[in-house]
Amino acid sequence: MSKQTFDRILQSQGFGSRKYCRDLISDGEVRINGEPFTDYSARLETDGLVFHLFDEDWIYREHVYIAINKPSDFECSRRPSHHPGILTLLPEQFTWRDVQPVGRLDHDTTGMLLLSDDGAFIHAQSSPKRHIKKVYVATTHEAVTDELVATLLAGVQLNDEPAPLAAQTCRKLAEHELEIVLEQGKYHQVKRMLAAAGNHCSALRRVAVGGLTLEALDLELGEWCFLEAEQLDLLVPDK
Ligand code: URA
Known about the structure:
- The protein is α+β, with helices and mostly antiparallel strands.
- It has helices at 6-12, 18-26, 92-96, 119-126, 146-154, 189-196, 214-217, 229-233, and strands at residues 3-5, 31-32, 35-36, 43-45, 50-53, 56-59, 65-70, 100-101, 109-116, 134-140, 169-174, 177-182, 201-209, 212-213, 224-226.
- The radius of gyration is 21 Å and the shape is elongated.
């Protein structure tokens, strides 16, 4: 349980500077239980607080954990150069809250991308020590052969890597489609592994992280959702 002044609460949720949040509150733009709540210095219990602003109900969240079904032609980098940044697909307050992607997907990769403003979560999810599996479906230029699957499972040597990298699991899904599961997240890893194994990745989709699947989230391309405790539990290895 923790109490904070209403202006600080609004600011912590990414709605702008303290001054701007005070103005929103004083102007009667923010409602609680259906009524304008205009006292910005009131100390409110944050646990379970729901307020209404800009036509939406917002639940107070100390941190946000988000999944988006990333479309192609969006960049995950903080300073996108050739395509819009992924944060442009999310409400503006997430940028104010310093929400960041957990790792990166290439601009042309689609599928599950996690984002958060919780540094410890981002760090833990990105750590190779945690062995969190990432499941990809790759469309291949050449047909998928038993030999390709065996090579990826045995490991391929990539430039700048000290040792060969192997898929944790790998299976043919269709003539030109392969499911590949990795525990690491090296730069362009799936594409480079496929190239090193003599094929070419022409499209890539991430369909799961840990035990959390894109199918279960049921998000259209470009759609996002908050992740709740039971979904976050699925991101822990061996679940
Ligand atoms: N591997 C790649 O090559 N690209 C991605 O976006 C993710 C994994």
